[in-house]
Design a protein that fits this description.
The structure is a single chain. By secondary structure, this protein is an all-alpha fold. The protein contains 7 helices and no strands. It is elongated, with a radius of gyration of 26 Å.
């Protein structure tokens, strides 16, 4: 009887050991905790700077001094790039990443809302710029976001793959910003 219990105990331990070897745990990627993000402070700051530069330009033109338009125009151009390209794309990228985190928390309705918010932000940029390269770049990102919205209720891996593709495209747009803005 005692030998039987020992063999049974060893058999159970061996079974547990073998079972643990056969199980293939696929580690889930870690998603950081979702934090509330907002970029309004950047938008307002840029708008205020643009207004101030316009006021200074008008003041200098009234004094009829040396040509102020060169440096002020270049500064204004850089601020316009910031307001109409870099900030909206950065905001869209953050919204995509937030949606990805929400999907991992199984909050697909909230994730969908974030993606729609990103689409709306991109639509405002597309309406304001005439640059064909910007429109093409934004249309590509918008198409990736639309695919992510459509597949958000689908299998987890596919929906996160779409979100990661959209996030990677937004990153790429920010990295190659000078090329896109120059129209090449």
């Amino acid at each position: 009887m005692k030998n039987s219990l020992i063999w049974l105990g060893l058999g159970i331990l061996m079974g547990i050991f073998m079972h643990s070897l056969w199980i293939k745990d696929q580690p889930e990627t870690w998603k950081p905790v979702l934090e509330k993000t907002d970029f309004n402070y950047l938008d307002y700051s840029v708008e205020n700077v643009i207004k101030e530069i316009n006021r200074i330009r008008d003041e200098i033109r009234g004094q009829k001094s040396a040509d102020p338009d060169g440096p002020l125009s270049r500064t204004m151009s850089l601020l316009m790039q910031l307001e109409y390209y870099y900030l909206p794309i950065t905001e869209a990228r953050q919204l995509i990443y937030d949606a990805d985190r929400l999907v991992s928390l199984h909050r697909t309705d909230d994730a969908r809302a974030k993606l729609i918010q990103a689409q709306n932000r991109l639509a405002r940029v597309e309406k304001t710029k005439k640059n064909h390269a910007i429109k093409k770049s934004i249309a590509k990102l918008d198409a990736l976001i639309k695919k992510a919205v459509l597949e958000i209720d689908g299998p987890y891996r596919e929906s996160t793959a779409r979100l990661e593709a959209a996030g990677a495209e937004a990153n790429l747009m920010l990295l190659k910003g000078e090329l896109v803005l120059s129209g090449t």
